[in-house]
Design goal:
mainly alpha
């Protein structure tokens, strides 16, 4: 009975489509609200990550002699003298978080901090499980601005918007 089978299949399809449409209709307002909160979440992620790295940079300045000693005897940074490695680490931890906060060159800042975070894990293999877990969280969160961008609450967004308006006007 091919006719009966196709009616049943049509009935199932019609019924399931109606259910899916109803569920989608119910979810739409919630999804719209979540979409409106997306720029705020992007900003919160950037601010939180920047605070983490910036605090480490400040701690390096506060106790410079200890920092250089750590780079000389504890961290295993290849090819660089300890003072140079410490200065580079401090510079990265102070400049790139500031860019992340502003959302200026945020993808570049995220990429640099991601690589820096990875190097820190490799250079200091004596990390505790808790410290390693922190580095993994930071690395994963750095992927958000790296791949998604800094969001609407950023200098990058304002520049992009200004350039796109200038392009439209010049045409």
């Amino acid at each position: 009975m091919p006719g009966t089978r196709s009616r049943k299949a049509g009935w199932l399809t019609q019924r399931s489509t109606g259910w899916v449409e109803q569920a989608a209709e119910i979810a739409r307002p919630t999804l719209r609200e979540l979409e409106r909160l997306s720029p705020v979440l992007d900003l919160v992620i950037r601010l939180w990550l920047a605070a983490v790295f910036f605090k480490f940079g400040l701690s390096k300045i506060a106790s410079w002699d200890v920092t250089v000693a750590l780079f000389a005897y504890q961290y295993r940074v290849p090819l660089l003298p300890p003072a140079t490695a410490a200065a580079m680490a401090m510079t990265i931890e102070l400049i790139f978080p500031a860019l992340l906060v502003l959302g200026l060159g945020a993808r570049l800042a995220s990429a640099v901090l991601f690589v820096f975070n990875l190097v820190a894990v490799v250079a200091y293999p004596d990390l505790s499980q808790e410290e390693l877990k922190d580095h993994i969280y930071w690395g994963l969160l750095l992927l958000v601005p790296l791949f998604h961008g800094p969001g609407r609450i950023s200098v990058d967004y304002l520049i992009r918007r200004k350039l796109s308006t200038a392009t439209v006007i010049s045409r």
